[in-house]
Amino acid sequence: MDRRAKLIHPTERGLLQMEAAASIMRSIEERHARALGEQEYKASKAALQRVAALRQESGHGGQGTGAGPAGPSGEAG
Predict the structure, then answer these.
(1) CB 66 within 8 A of CB 72
(2) Angle at alpha carbon of residue 42, lines to 33 and 25, rounded to 5°
(3) 3-state secondary structure 14-65
(4) Tens-digit pLDDT profile for residues 44-76
(5) What is the DSSP letter of 12?
(6) Distances (CA, A) of 70 to 6, 61, 62, 65
(7) What is the C-alpha to C-alpha distance for residues 29 and 71, in angstroms, rounded to an integer?
(8) Residue 34's Cα: distance from chain center in Å?
(9) Which of the listed residues 13, 18, 24, 71 has the most CB atoms within 10 Å of its CB?
(10) How far is CA 7 from CA 2, 10, 18, 22, in A?
């Protein structure tokens, strides 16, 4: 076992933030599914998940690209 590992427990505020984020994501996904149609939305989501998996497999993992919430250093702010 890696002794550097830490068990993290979200605070009550953190849990509320996670619930709010999940609700926002559900709303966005529902809106996109309505706009594209359920089948097209599912297909586009599956394609994006495959692209993300390929990036993980190739070792890119999205770090160092300067894109996304992690930023150029690969660490979230």
Answers:
(1) yes
(2) 55
(3) HHHHHHHHHHHHHHHHHHHHHHHCHHHHHHHHHHHHHHHHHHHHCCCCCCCC
(4) 999 999 999 999 998 877 555 444 454 444 444
(5) H
(6) 21, 11, 8, 9
(7) 24
(8) 21
(9) 71
(10) 12, 10, 17, 22
Tokens standing for 75? 């660490």
Using the structure block, give the residue that is written with the tokens 């605070």. 11
In terms of Cβ atoms closer than 10 Å to its own Cβ (0-12, 13-18, 19+), residue 21 is exposed
Structure token digits, residue 7: 């068990």
Q: What is the pTM of this model?
A: 0.58
Q: Which residue is it, tokens 């709303």?
A: 27
